[in-house]
Amino acid sequence: MEAFVKPFIVVCDGMDADVFASLQAVSEFDVHPKAKLTQDEIKELLPKASALVIRSATKVQEEYLELAPNLKYVIRAGAGTDNIDKVKCGERGVKVSNTPGANNNSAAEHAVALMMTVLRHTAAADATMKNGGWDKSKYTGNELTNKKVGIVGFGQIGKIVAKRLQGFEPEVKFFDPFCESSDLAYVSKAQSVEEIFETCDIITLHTPLMEETKGMINKDLFNKMQSHAILVNASRGGIVNEEDLVSALKEGKLKAAGFDVFATEPLEEDSPLRQIPNLVLTPHLGAATDEAQLRVGEMAVNQLKEYFLNDNLLHEVKA
């Protein structure tokens, strides 16, 4: 009978400390002792890695797969797997899973937080206060109450956003070709994404990044926006044409925007996005809550146990 060889588990981009300790306590696993690694450190460990647990910082593309002949399993501690080359993984027999649902509430709340930050200029006001200013009249904002909110993509996160907005008494429209209706009385389906951009005061994006959505938010849609409207993106950066966004903000096609995600991450130091005063930027914080990290970590540890110890693959994601 073939002897059991402990799988070597590498946690690349951080994990809740207690959850990581519970993973290290699994006697059948050999777990690398650090839970947050640089990309150079990851490359050094790839030749003997059996499994990788990653977030958005690590990209499992062909280069990494070439360095990892023993790799059997990649877990994305989150929902989006666009940073994993699933085709190449499939060709090499490497299984891929995500942790669906664990980040949903945190991502939805961050979208609402960006709405409020953009509407009330809180980030800019704080910066001027820290520099000794008191620019009260400069930062007169707008209310969220009774606004028309458009949600592009009405999956789990989009639906949570709609629920979290309920106390603001909005009129909510959504567009999603895979969802026909909502059970919330104040939510209705728009006939097209163009209708969302033409009629809504606040637009928030919650679509996955795939071939059909890549670059779908572009100058054609920006040209349809009302000049007082704002745009929030806490989903995936690649769905927005960032060059068109910069132009639209400069030209007043929309009033302002709040973005948590970008086509290239980390955002380049010289990105034009950093120079736009009516654009609030956060460094992909949608899932960055203690609660979300606890949930994704617990799911990932359970998936590792099920796969390596019980030959049971949970939440597989295929190309």
Automatic annotation (TrEMBL):
This is Hydroxyacid dehydrogenase. It comes from Halobacteriovorax vibrionivorans. Residues 9-317 form the D-isomer specific 2-hydroxyacid dehydrogenase catalytic domain. Pfam families: 2-Hacid_dh, 2-Hacid_dh_C. Gene3D superfamilies: NAD(P)-binding Rossmann-like Domain. CDD domains: PGDH_4. The keyword NAD applies. InterPro entries: D-2-hydroxyacid_DH (IPR050857), D-isomer_2_OHA_DH_cat_dom (IPR006139), D-isomer_DH_CS (IPR029753), D-isomer_DH_CS1 (IPR029752), D-isomer_DH_NAD-bd (IPR006140), NAD(P)-bd_dom_sf (IPR036291). Belongs to the D-isomer specific 2-hydroxyacid dehydrogenase family. Residues 112-286 form the D-isomer specific 2-hydroxyacid dehydrogenase NAD-binding domain. Keywords: Amino-acid biosynthesis, NAD, Oxidoreductase.
